[in-house]
Design brief:
Two copies of one chain form a homodimer. An eight-stranded mixed beta sheet of chain A has the order 7-6-5-2-1-8-20-19. Chain A has a four-stranded parallel beta sheet with strand order 12-11-10-16. In chain A, 30% of the residues lie in helices and 23% in strands. In chain A, a hairpin with a 4-residue loop joins β5 (115-126) and β6 (131-136). Chain A contains 14 helices and 24 strands. At the A-B interface, α1, β4, β5, α7 and α8 of A face α1, β4, β5, α7 and α8 of B.
Chain lengths: 502, 502
């Protein structure tokens, strides 16, 4: 076994962080390790001999990336998130069909050396006393264990009130990166019946449902019309997420389902809806046209100008371009449009928020603006749950979140070097362009709006697909996934996708 | 993409098989493909131009192996099983800790070329009319989809009564291979609270619970004693399954948990219980001693002569060797002893059964004995759910099930060549010896009781472990898994195991 031990020192010193009344003896007996010259920079009144404590709320693109980058020899870092992992969103669509294994799209937070992790949800923040109150999430809904013969059960091993007791985590700097969740714009029935695609659990759910639809449609007691209804896959939202999912699904059906379920050949259909006239509206017109032509050729139906009015367990009602209302059946409905801030940000007091999105106002240095209109020096908001108070709205993308994480990392680094953090200047987003996979070894790469150096190129087809794969593969966080991802791509190419449902 | 098309011919002709009233037009319009000279060998009265129809109930070691081996150009093969996959049981313990990915221990039934699969449970057999009645299982409990905010939901897409309607499958030859399920010997509380390890879903459940215990124990509001209770892993059954699970768990704790959860170091414990005085009682004494010494050194406690009296959500009550009764706490209880035939075999009418195990009596040619004491020429029982009426009981192992599948394959082959199937002689089991993994790159190989050619060797330690891995790797069914398994072993070696819980 290679020596992969954790930096014990930082892990030990972090014990101070968490309010840990019953184990206080353990933490007080350990001496504070490593030099931390600027440990108390942020609390200018009290100078104590310990590292600066950074608490990050959230383990998404912003939170996870920041936790990875911060120099743990200078800071004690705690990540608070109900998810013990980061979801690598560009690969989620691939995992829904089995092109990639689910774990290829995740990175465990605990694998970041020197970072303390609390499986919990932030409840509230006491800005005056610099404390976050969190609610444990180890027993939360999504972790329930399924059993064969009963409903989801979850044996509480200790009196639940004990485990679900909230606790406090003190911070010197707080970074709010709780992101957004999928939103249904209040469309009735969507929250109950649609599938989303924000997290690896969503992807697993889609995969189970997809394979279930195939088995249901294979039963002999139903008509071909009923089979067609079961195999109607409807995707709402023509942005990159919806398009990539439709593309993966189309590949899965033509490359695997037709072979493994020969009886169902020709019965499946994929329809993509959007309120806009077409799909991928943020892309260059020429590329968009390419994608639409490709989908038309592959049999993926695109329905622009469509408003979904309501959803039931197996139908959606929609208003078409000509104003008529139509009700269509589905076997699986995937909702990939709309975002809203999560309940923690919604309930957060003492900060200024955007009246429309309810996201947190930040100044150009990503400092949270308090309800008096002043930036708080120790509290930051990054990623989808933040909005510059300048009014310039940034896209809610992984690219923006990652760049904000990188900016925060540089600020913290500057602090640890004894410099003023704001001396690096305000945050500015660099548009690196966008990419989307459109199926069958083809993709689009659009750098026409790019604000970084390099060619302002537009590319479609196989070469773009090659760039898509290469880029995301190298963006993978761990060596583990940098090895596994191309391995699974190769296996899917030679042996097809796995249809095991368990 | 490589050409991996199914033999369309056999898939089409199989449509005749399934009672498919609503699609009759589709099947009658296709001509029967391929020559099938001995198609009607088994129904000696009616001679019709079609292939012989073999229906296999079950997708375990016996059923899956038989379905794979049968020559599909001579037979139409249908597999009926609630599980759309085969569980490669030797790797299940490795998947509980993440040494291997779950899918490394599964093979999808639908990937067998030319085999028709019905996700259903056998309900009853009409031996006179050669028909099996099956109940669809596509909507069954274990396939329920979990959602974040609610209990397990499973949207019935069509009126449920329609999908759950039983249907009939006619056969020329029926092979009953439904196997056994885990049994608790009526010990109160075990069925509700214990984890089992027979299937990949069991393995997933164990992994989720194990990781949940680690997160629960990481919460700050509890005492170290409560942590020790949460991290008490108790395994009942000292056979190869229990021993391999304890070994994998011990490796996981020392190699990964101590590194990723430094705060929990020294708090976890593993205890293995058996009614026998020790573990691995079917192994040679010297090897057994080696395993016990190794477990003692690694801190895995072995408690022989222990009878479990009852189990609760976090405790078991047991009678010790000295007759005293003790109640101990656990965080996870894994029950790996005892088997019972499944409900279908229990309710099956018209066949002779073993009065103790309720398994089906077969003659030396594996033909099922009817309730008049006569072998049925077209009905066979293989694997754990069969018992020779001679009284000689065979071990309920993968080895026996595989050999029975191979024997049946040879019989069907002989039939297709125009020979009498019984001319190959009675089934006889060859003991090839046994192997067990005991942790930390060590295993036992015991061929001292072997009845096949080769050295009657006993081996323990690293060399035995090397043989263990090599043997099972080559035994893997698909190319896919023959590539993935060593890849995951290598990744676990270099980067440790993944602790993502979703």
């Amino acid at each position: 076994m290679l020596p992969l031990t954790t930096t014990r020192a930082s892990a030990t010193s972090l014990r101070h962080l968490v309010a840990h009344p019953l184990r206080r003896h353990a933490s007080t007996s350990t001496s504070t390790p490593a030099t931390a010259p600027l440990a108390s920079f942020m609390s200018s009144t009290t100078v104590i001999e310990r590292k600066g404590r950074i608490v990050i709320l959230g383990s998404g693109w912003a939170g996870y990336n920041l936790a990875r980058k911060i120099d743990k020899s200078f800071y004690d870092v705690t990540v608070v998130s109900p998810n013990s992992y980061f979801s690598f969103t560009p690969f989620l669509a691939s995992t829904t069909t089995g092109t990639l294994e689910f774990r290829c799209a995740t990175e465990p937070v605990r694998s970041i050396e020197g970072v303390e992790y609390a499986q919990a949800r932030a409840e509230s923040v006491d800005f005056a006393n610099k404390t976050v109150t969190v609610a444990p999430a180890s027993l939360s809904d999504h972790t329930k264990v399924q059993r064969d013969k009963s409903d989801a059960t979850d044996v509480a091993l200790l009196p639940e009130q004990k485990l679900s007791k909230n606790y406090d985590i003190p911070y010197d700097a707080l970074v709010i990166a709780t992101g957004c969740r999928s939103a249904s714009f209040g469309t009735p029935g969507v929250a109950e019946h649609a599938m989303f695609l924000k997290d690896v659990r969503d992807a697993r759910r889609i995969r189970l449902r997809l394979l279930q639809c195939l088995e249901l449609a294979s039963e002999p007691n139903i008509t071909d019309d009923e089979r067609r209804a079961l195999l109607s896959f409807r995707v709402v939202g023509g942005g990159p997420t919806g398009v990539e999912f439709a593309a993966e699904l189309c590949d899965f059906i033509t490359e695997d389902v037709d072979r493994l379920y020969p009886r169902l050949r020709g019965l499946a259909s994929i329809t993509l809806y959007d309120v806009a006239p077409g799909i991928l509206m943020s892309f260059d017109g020429e590329l968009r046209h390419y994608a639409e032509k490709k989908f038309a050729r592959d049999g993926v139906t695109v329905r622009g100008n469509s408003h979904i009015l309501a959803a039931g367990p197996d139908w959606i009602e929609l208003k078409k371009a000509d104003g008529t209302v139509e009700r269509v059946q589905y076997g699986m409905l995937v909702w990939s449009t709309g975002l809203s801030v999560n309940p923690f940000v919604n309930s957060l007091k003492g900060v200024s928020k955007d009246p429309h999105t309810h996201s947190i106002h930040v100044d150009p240095y990503l400092r949270v603006i308090d309800d008096q209109g002043k930036p708080m020096p120790h509290v930051f908001a990054v990623g989808d749950n933040s909005t510059p108070d300048s009014g310039q709205r940034l896209p809610a993308t992984a690219q923006v979140a990652s760049q904000m994480a990188h900016y925060m990392h540089k600020k913290f680094k500057r602090l640890s070097m004894g410099k003023a953090p704001e001396s690096i200047g305000p945050f500015s987003w660099k548009n690196k362009g966008s990419m989307v996979f459109v199926g069958k070894e083809q993709a689009l790469v659009d750098r026409s709006g790019s604000t970084v150096e390099g060619p302002k190129s537009k590319l479609s087809g196989f070469a773009a697909w090659f760039i898509w794969r290469s880029y995301y593969m190298t963006l993978s966080m761990s060596w583990r996934n940098q090895i596994l991802v191309p391995m699974y791509w190769t296996l899917a190419y030679f042996f097809g996708r796995d249809v095991t449902r368990f």
